[in-house]
Amino acid sequence: MKNFKIADSKFKELLLPTLLIVMALNISSVVDSFFLGTFIGKNAVAAIELLEPMILLITVFEWLFGLGGQILALNKKAEFDIGGSNRYFTTSMVVSIVASILITLFCLMFMNEITVFLGATTTTKPLVMQYSTYLYGCFFVSTVVGILTQYIRVDGQPNFASAVIIIANGINIVLDYIFLSSGMGMASAALASFIGYSAALIICLLYIRSPKRTFRFDRKALEIKTFIKSTWDMIKVGFPGASVGVFDVVFVYMINIFLTATLGDTGLTTYMVCMDALVIASIVDVGVSETLTSIVPIYYTKHDYVNLNHLLRNSLIINFTFAIIMMAILWIWPQGFLSLYNFNQIDIAGFVINALKLYSFFFIVSVLPNLLVFYYEAIERPVLSSAISIMYTLVMPLISVIVLYNLIGSNGIWIGFSVGALISMVIVVISVKVIQKRETKYDGLFFIEKDLVNKTKNFVLTDNNLEERTDCLNHIKNLGADEVFCENTNKIFDVIFDTNEDGTYVEVLVIDYEDNIHVDIKYDGEKENLEHLKKSFPENLFKYAEVLGFNTIEYVMDKS
After folding, report:
1. C-alpha angle with apex 478: 475 to 484, nearest 5 degrees?
2. Which of 345, 20, 38 is nearest to 189 (CA)?
3. How do residues 417-433 score in pLDDT, each as one tens digit?
4. What are 267's strand-pairing partners?
5. Residue 183, SS3 per DSSP
6. Each residue of 1-56: pLDDT tens digit?
């Protein structure tokens, strides 16, 4: 049976903090909805729905500059370019700080105009205005916290990243209850979020002072030409993920206008409840997809398709399982979800329950297109990723909702989301097949180089499994490697095991290219071990770096 110990341990290590970060990006508005529905009423929930496009703007910055910068920084590390990695980290932080400050100032200056543009009615406008003040103040603190914790998460400190997010959300929830139960009103819910994320930002400064961090600020990144180029690179790579947020902003705004015209404030309240359910259901979906985005560049760049396929398969199983469970809960006990808002006794309870049940099918059909958006971004296919996101997030659901509403009435609105996602997936499959007729070396939805699959072999070594090490060395020798290369490879293994704790796992990928043999080694051992390797071998014999908490080594022998 294939040993996936290292890949699985890294996936699990990154998954929890990633889930918490995704929760941080989305759950504050959900918690606010619960408390506002309970303490103020359904009009407050409708007001939050009107503000949803502005709330989603925060995720746009975090995906655009945080996820885009992170992917490029990790890729540079995988290529052993530490300076390049630090330049992307620096640019990512500077751009996000400047952009979030500018958007905060703009929103505060034009608060009334934005409220009117969002379509607030005479009933909801005062509530929207009250919530907006501190919401727009949150743009800066939550954006910087969200981006910085993404880097902390992939810099060998996932538990610290988790703690930051837990503290931010914990403070928000506690203060929400204290403020609203004491009658402080709509604005206090946004104030609770602002205080929580401000505290989290202060805690994040401990990372900046940490000697253990590998991402460093680089003044060269601020040189005008370098800064502009790095920013453009980040935007190109980060846009597919961010475009989900961009198109969400546009879609939610347009659907809000549509719902106001067709169903009034009842439609807005119902859609907010459905959106909150989706946010909870998609925490695992988006969290797993973003975790893959951190790991996929490492394995895909090295053509390690065995581990890649294993991680993709497990990710899909996790996502579909959780989506099915969430849908089942809403069909079996929808009253339980409505009780979080204290909505079970209101006049529209039956309408909301019916909408929730129909909308819940979207949890399942959205799993694959959502994962593919992040996956294609991670393997640097931004055009395909962006095309999926605009179809799946904006165009197809909007068309489906409007068409089905005109055909079958209000039920068509809640069914339309699932129909739009299914149509999008059909278009994706056709598009991939068209691309692969031109790029014939790739196969399947995940663009695996089919000719390389049979030229790669994986081994997982331990200090007490000499048989696996012997098989690995024999395989390298059978590929035509000379004695010196084989001896050096074996010596690398000796140094790794001699200078790490017992039980250290070492993952070895051997690839037989036409003109050379690649031996790529990854292990989750002591960082100082790289210094031992440096002293034990001639300079420039192989490349090594710490990537994603892995110690990585690349040793190549030319066949010529």
Report:
1. 90
2. 38
3. 999 999 999 999 999 99
4. none
5. coil
6. 456 777 888 788 778 777 776 776 566 667 777 888 788 887 887 787 788 778 77
- Asked whether 280 and 434 are in contact (CB, 8 A), the reply is no
The predicted structure's pLDDT at residue 244: 66
- String of DSSP letters for 375-392: HHHHTT-HHHHHHHHHII
| Phi-psi category of residue 342: left, alpha or beta, with phi > 0 → left and psi -120 to 50 → alpha | left
| Residue-wise pLDDT tens digits, 112-157 | 888 888 888 788 888 889 888 888 888 888 888 888 887 887 777 7
The residues with which 555 forms a beta bridge, in sequence order, are: 519
- Whole-number Cα distances in Å, 233 to 226, 297, 379: 10, 16, 14
- How many beta carbons lie within 10 A of that of residue 55, not counting itself? 25
Q: Give Cα separations from 185 to 36, 51, 55, 108 (angstroms).
A: 9, 17, 19, 20
Place of tokens 């079996």: 332
Average of per-residue pLDDT values in the chain? 84
SS3 state of residue 512? strand
Which among 459, 485, 475, 477 has a CA at the least distance from the CA of 541?
485
> To which residue do tokens 């989301």 refer?
417
- The sign one gets for the Cα dihedral 353, 358, 364, 366 is negative
Task: Identify the H or E element spanning 229.
Answer: helix 224-262
CB 473 within 8 A of CB 489: yes
DSSP H helix total and E strand total for the chain: 22, 7
Sign of the dihedral defined by the CA atoms of residues 481, 484, 489, 493, in that order: positive
Residue type, 405: Y
Give the span between the Cα atoms of 412 and 15, in whole angstroms.
36
What are the backbone angles phi and psi of residue 408, rounded to the nearest 5°?
Answer: -130, 5
Q: Cα-Cα-Cα-Cα dihedral of 533, 539, 543, 545, to 10°?
A: 50
3-state helix, strand, coil in the chain (%, to 5): 75, 5, 20
Residue ranges for the chain with pLDDT beneath 70: 1-3, 21, 24-29, 63, 78, 240-245, 525-528, 548-549, 560
The pTM of this model reads 0.74
